[in-house]
Amino acid sequence: MAKDKQIFYCSECGFEAGKWMGQCPSCKAWNSFTEHKVTGKALRNGWAGERPKAVRISEVTSAEESRIKTDIGELDRVLGGGIVPGSLVLIGGAPGIGKSTLLLEMCRNLTGKNVKTLYISGEESLQQIRMRGERIGISGSELLLLSDNSFENAEEVIRSAEAQVVIVDSIQTMETENLPAAPGTVSQVREITARLMVLANQLKTSIFVVGHVTKEGTVAGPRTLEHMVDSVIYFEGDNTNGFRLLRAEKNRFGSTDEIGVFNMTDHGLEEVVNPSELFLSGRPRGASGSVVVSMEEGTRAVLVELQALCCDSSFNMPRRTAVGVDYNRVNLLIAVLEKRGGISLSGADCYVNIAGGLRVSDPSADLGIICAIASSFRDRAVPEGFVIIGEIGLAGEIRGIRSALRRVKEAVKMGYTDILLPASNRSRELDELTGVRLHYVSSIQEALALI
User: What is the pTM of this model?
Assistant: First the structure.
């Protein structure tokens, strides 16, 4: 009979070792190994009933034909068009960000379409779930509820209820009797996720798993957890702002470029149909260092306000601060502006910020960053009605961008009349647009002279 033994797991990546180590050889994290006891009894979670057989790809039914719509447009967009039967989705986010509220609203819509739904909570009692459900109008629903921390009990209910959609809130509170470790440990999370994956494939049930996040913003537990599931979705936002962003970090059934925008209200989460209007609300008029840029998120173009502030530095080394944009990218653009644009910033502190707390990784915001810094440094406001789009190269050239027509149409819809574009994006479709003036530039010298 096999004996019990001690295994050390890296809490960051899930690497296993027979002894404790100061640094993980896989992810190079320090002091990340935790000790776990592994029983000698082997855990078997194989397929029940008839074993699967190989089939031709032409005989497999496409998942696109059987997606379940949640009737929450922003959530369906991030999921890739709806819920795929038999999928395992991990939703992470900071405490109080709205994960449980979003999933309860999804349950409300699904039960209204006669989709059998089961909500399993290891954190809240049935009365607490009912109170939160009444706030978002779910009291008269046929939603099935279960409040239990035992995974064996939850597994039995999942099999007997025959629900099409199951929510487990949260994975860190569930525990299995097969492991002596405490709930939330690496071994517990890995074991329960593996068994949920088997359940989803066996029963063709879509399972949503809620995961807590660490101080770095990633899902708590091993990184292997993200590899086991089909989709990893993060719910982001600032508690000081009302809006929330839903973003897919991994999605086997759709694009990872899409974002969903919600607004937190007293009655739950509301979809934001026009994100550009939300992000541009409260923008100052005639202020230097403020420009409007167009970023692309999946199949939509979104206008955001980019702000920059330059002031005399009191330090030997001037400060560079970036919020919402990559810090190294900002330093690179400042160097290009000094070398190619003829503006000396060696004695000025530079601060760059995306208004509203949004994160921008689209390189087409490069030209907007340079124009905002130059505007603040010279204390001259960019003319009203301008939207600035373009990627910057190290030679000071303005490189072409993708989906230029979609971005320009979004700017026109929001009432902007002047668009600054790379010259390489000039096309007949753009020239045929009415009600807008297109300014094509090929270098940062031309762009700065124009604005």
Answer: 0.76
